[in-house]
Amino acid sequence: MSEHNLYETLQAKFGDQIAGANLEALDEWIEVTAAGLVDVCHFLKHDPDWQFNLLNCITVVDYFEPDPKKAAKAGWEPHLEVVYHLSSTEQKNADGSCFNVVLKVMTPRWKDDQEGQLPEVPSVASVWRTADWHERETYDLSGVMFTDHPDLRRILCPEDWEGHPLRKDYEMPLEYHGIRGR
Amino acid sequence: MAASVADQRVIEFDVRTDEMLINMGPQHPSTHGVLRLVLRTDGEVVSEVEPHLGYLHRCAEKIGENLTPRQWVPYTDRMDYLAGMNMNLGWALCVEKLLEHKLSDKAKHLRVIIAEMGRIASHLVGMGAYGLDLGTFSPFLYAFREREKILDLFEEACGARLTYSYLTPGGATADLPEGWLDKCSAFLDQFEPVIQEYHALLTTNSIFIKRTANIGIMNAEMVTDYGCTGPVLRGSGVDHDLRRDGEEIYTEMYDDYAFEVVVQKDGHYPRDHKYPPVPKEAVLGDCWHRFYVRMLEVVQAIDLVRQAIERYRSADGDWGIPIKLTQKLPKGEVYLETEAPRGQMGFYLVSDGNSIPRRVRARSSCFCNLSVTSDVCRGALLADVPAIVGSLDVVMGEIDR
């Protein structure tokens, strides 16, 4: 599968919803806007040339540097990257490996720069049902709100936990039900 | 509620089966770890199952943001603790993919031996514990008797019986000791005929077939949509195994090995091995087929280990010297999935160019496998719930990380 081919096909079909790509990286990725995510995913899953029927993983990487001196040298603005890894059980490359692709959605760390308001990304649970649990985990640990999700609530942390632990600026609460946190 | 009857001395009551909310709590002998299932049942028929997770969440991913990759290897052991070697392998390959580190042939064959022995050990637990869930105790003991021998071999190789941390980025912590390969071959020669005992106890047992055949049927479209992988995927007839279809860095370990994916094609499983026939009650995608795929994978793993032992003896190179503890990682990110016994285990590593990564993510195979429970158990009987959850063969350590 040629990543270049896929990138060109997606650009031709979706225009500005495809915000960029890095095709020189070890694992090439294609950036999609939040608004176009569900349509792109639907196309990738159902199009007979691609058939990405397996959603392997949804991850969020928090690009935030708490130390201001290191932040100045970082080379990026603070943001979150929601990374989707897809693969196909039907389509194979010439060397026998199955099709794999990485999609990324860039979002700000807080919605409208208001600390505490979670950024929003549309849910792909309507495309792959496995996204249901992956998005619940992402919401729970990294604090990304998935709109149109059938049942968005915490999955690994207890229901009454506060905060999103995998964020870089997360601080353990002082106490939880009488147990000392820090 | 009294309906009116002619004789006022007789009162008729309408016996309703009210909906019950049953808690299969985190402590339960049949839930494969600390899993809480809240069942909504109408009498004996389950209308909804809601799994509650997180009882074993140990923040492995957050810890990974403070340790170097070699220091994080013990955390991978503790994810799927019944297949620790395969978890270590997945992480080791992921880090080597980022470092673009090449291994010698000898190290690759060593990894095949260890990974496939780990697969046998893990499927033995899956099979034995499944029998235990359904109420039979003997297969559990028979399986553990053989598993003890594998664990003894692993203890000789790396010093641990459960949390090995043996396969690290760069290779393995030490070479196999003197005489290990002979002991391993002797074990395989002794183990192969014993598998017939398991077939007699479980696979062809009419009670087992009654409890598992035609139960928890999942079609191919449903399993891929829910992201299920491994024996759950292949038990529904989807021909997909990362040892053949995965990325180059993983499949090159299995290059030139005689290997067939264990999946039913045209009504038949791969014919290289002797096997009991599929009973007529079993439908593709039910619990029995998922169990059967695991049994056949054990037989195939024995074959792979035998091939690997021969190649290891004649291979050149070293066993794979591990990378430095504080090796600086290049800037970049990689994702790699490997075929662990329970499914596809993925590791995602994002690095900024330091020795400590920015983000470490473990994609658990059992997490996705467990997500089908609510859909599959709808309409099943109460006694089928442990049969279905057992056939998915979940380990909570991997789900909660």
Task: Reconstruct the topology from this structure.
The complex is a heterodimer of chains A (182) and B (401).
Chain A: H1 3-14, E1 18-22, E2 29-32, H2 37-46, E3 54-63, H3 68-73, E4 79-92, E5 98-107, E6 120-122, H4 131-142, E7 145-147, E8 175-176, E9 179-180
Parallel strand pairs in A: 2-5, 6-7
Antiparallel strand pairs in A: 1-2, 3-4, 4-5, 8-9
Chain B: E1 19-24, E2 36-42, E3 45-52, H1 60-64, H2 69-77, H3 84-99, H4 105-134, H5 138-158, E4 167-168, E5 171-172, H6 180-203, H7 206-212, H8 220-225, H9 231-234, H10 242-245, H11 248-251, H12 287-314, E6 332-340, E7 343-351, E8 359-363, H13 365-370, H14 373-376, H15 384-392, H16 396-400
Antiparallel strand pairs in B: 1-2, 2-3, 4-5, 6-7, 7-8
Helix pairs in contact in B: 2-3, 3-4, 4-5, 4-12, 4-15, 5-6, 6-12, 12-15
Question: Can you offer a commentary on this structure?
Answer:
The complex is a heterodimer of chains A (182) and B (401). Chain A has one domain: Beta Polymerase, domain 2 (2-Layer Sandwich). Chain A is 22% helix and 29% strand. Chain A has helices at 3-14, 37-46, 68-73, 131-142, and strands at 18-22, 29-32, 54-63, 79-92, 98-107, 120-122, 145-147, 175-176, 179-180. In chain A, strands 1-2-5-4-3 form a 5-stranded mixed β-sheet. A two-stranded parallel ribbon of chain A has the order 6-7. Chain A has a two-stranded antiparallel ribbon with strand order 8-9. Chain A is globular and about 55 Å long. The termini of chain A are far apart. The model of chain A has no long low-confidence stretch (mean pLDDT 89). Chain B has 401 residues and is of the alpha+beta class. Chain B has one domain: Cytochrome-c3 Hydrogenase, chain B (Orthogonal Bundle), CATH 1.10.645.10. In chain B, 45% of the residues lie in helices and 12% in strands. Chain B has 16 helices and 8 strands. Chain B has helices at residues 60-64, 69-77, 84-99, 105-134, 138-158, 180-203, 206-212, 220-225, 231-234, 242-245, 248-251, 287-314, 365-370, 373-376, 384-392, 396-400, and strands at 19-24, 36-42, 45-52, 167-168, 171-172, 332-340, 343-351, 359-363. Chain B has a 3-stranded antiparallel β-sheet. A 3-stranded antiparallel β-sheet of chain B has the order 6-7-8. The mean pLDDT of chain B is 89. The chains are: A alpha/beta (182), B alpha+beta (401). Chains A and B meet through strand 3, strand 4, strand 5 and helix 4 of A and strand 6, strand 7 and strand 8 of B.
